[in-house]
Write a structure and sequence with these properties.
Layout: H1 2-8, H2 12-24, H3 32-44, H4 48-60, H5 68-80, H6 84-96, H7 104-116, H8 120-132, H9 140-152, H10 156-168, H11 176-188, H12 192-200
Helix pairs in contact: 1-2, 2-3, 3-4, 4-5, 5-6, 6-7, 7-8, 8-9, 9-10, 10-11, 11-12
């Protein structure tokens, strides 16, 4: 009720929040179309969260015709407005060449911006770029650094990857205890791959 009043009075935050309520069917019948409508209003009114949310809607084709190009457009707007999720998502689009020409360099640039803004997903993605030498000089040490940051910030994939680095002594001394510790943390967060690794450890 109050988000709607705020939204109708022109408050961009309220527009985004009303979109979220429609997206999740909270306090209102779930509607992807209404979610998109309010995200768009919020985005056009300058709300960076709404820009990212609208981008995701275009990427997934929920409540709107799927369009990677439109997704990139809104992720970029959100990223340039300082939204760390939009930065990471834009990096992902560049990494995979979705809606934009594939560029590891641009992917690294946006993952780094997002990671430095505290986004745990981006920390993991940046670690992966370093591990695989994509868009940046290959460095296991840097990979470990960013996986650790992501893991400590609660990202399950980063935990699993950090466990793997310890398991194989990549960028860090081999350490059975640390391997187990990070695989277990990732598994406890629901990471199936880490669960498999944990069960196959011979120590």
């Amino acid at each position: 009720k109050w988000y709607r009043k705020g939204a109708e009075a022109g408050d961009a935050n309220a527009m985004n929040n009303l979109g979220v309520m429609y997206a999740n069917g909270q306090g209102v019948e779930q509607s992807d179309t209404e979610a998109v409508k309010w995200y768009r209003k919020g985005a056009e009114a300058g709300n960076a969260n709404a820009m990212n949310n609208l981008g995701w809607r275009y990427q997934s084709g929920k409540g709107v015709e799927q369009s990677d190009t439109e997704a990139v457009k809104w992720y970029r707007k959100g990223a340039e407005a300082g939204n760390d999720y939009a930065m990471n998502n834009l990096g992902w689009m560049y990494q995979n060449g979705q809606g934009v020409e594939q560029s590891d360099t641009e992917a690294v640039k946006w993952h780094r911006k997002s990671a430095e803004a505290g986004n745990a997903n981006a920390m993991c993605n940046l670690g992966w770029m370093y591990q695989n030498g994509k868009g940046v000089e290959q460095s296991d040490t840097e990979a470990v650094k960013w996986y650790r940051k992501g893991a400590e910030a609660g990202n399950a994939n980063a935990m699993a990857n950090l466990g793997w680095m310890y398991d194989w002594g990549k960028g860090v001394d081999q350490n059975a205890e640390e391997t187990k510790k990070w695989y277990k943390k990732a598994a406890d967060c629901g990471n199936a791959w880490a669960k498999e690794q944990l069960s196959s450890l011979s120590y």
